[in-house]
Amino acid sequence: MDYFVYTHNKNFGVEVFYTEDKRNCAKMVRMKLTQYSDYPRTEKLYLVHANDLISQSELDSMALSNANFANFANIELVNLHTLSKVINKYEPLETPPGYRGMFEVS
Description:
By secondary structure, this protein is of the alpha/beta class. The chain has helices at about 20-35, 55-65, 80-85; strands at about 5, 10-15, 45-50, 75-80. It has a 4-stranded mixed β-sheet.
């Protein structure tokens, strides 16, 4: 998993991957579902396809045609644009007082 995000609403994981075409994307999704078969069903996981040439509707069709996807109600196959809309619905945690990021210049 590339990221595990903590929010006030609910925590979620993000796995980003890239393929050139739909056929390879479908193969990768099958591999990801196997890889995350033990992922907690209580936590949301977003499989994020980073190739903008494959639309969200094409990804939705791909998920529907994969029989295994029905076993993973907590996993969503999304593109980058959809992920940005989805994560804006989560309420971020507050930044602790005095916190400085590791790349902030003093």
